[in-house]
Write a structure and sequence with these properties.
This protein is α+β, with helices and mostly antiparallel strands and 128 residues long. 20% of the residues lie in helices and 41% in strands. It has a single domain, classed as Lipocalin, CATH 2.40.128.270. Strands 1, 2, 3, 4, 5, 6, 7, 8 and 9 form a 9-stranded antiparallel beta sheet that branches. The longest helix is centred in the C-terminal third of the chain and has 13 residues, at 90-102. The chain starts with a helix and ends with a strand. 24% of the residues are buried.
């Protein structure tokens, strides 16, 4: 229901009113592949930098790489990598990286960032 409500209001995404910027905002993963997550507030935090770098912390590993985006909200990730410590939720980290590998575009609606693959929401992050 949350996804339907957010997608229904995506006209606001395109207008940019009161939307957090993709770059420079710290984003916290809240939903992945249709599943709501309850992860600690200091885990699964990511940022997009002005120079095209993407990075953050998953369950316990650093996840980083490069990204490209444009004014039409297309997005792609390159050279994604992570450290390799064993931790709970390591599978969740791997699933998130897979979602980023398949990402085609994004939408920002207020403080919510949606990562999409061919029109389907794959991940929802909230500005911290």
């Amino acid at each position: 229901m949350l996804v339907t409500l957010m997608l229904g209001g995506c006209c606001a995404c395109r207008k940019g009113k009161n939307n957090m910027p993709l770059k420079g905002t710290e984003w916290h993963l809240m939903r992945l592949m249709g599943r709501d997550l309850s992860v600690d507030a200091d885990k699964f935090l990511f940022t997009f930098s002005e120079d095209g770098e993407f990075g953050g912390t998953g369950a316990c590993n650093r996840i980083f790489g490069a990204f490209k985006s444009n004014d039409q909200r297309a997005i792609s990730f390159e050279n994604l990598a992570s450290t390799r410590m064993m931790c709970p939720d390591a599978n969740l980290e791997a699933q998130f990286v897979e979602v980023l590998d398949r990402a085609t575009h994004y939408e920002v609606d207020g403080n919510v960032l949606m990562i999409l693959s061919n029109g389907e929401v794959q991940a929802i992050l909230m500005a911290k």
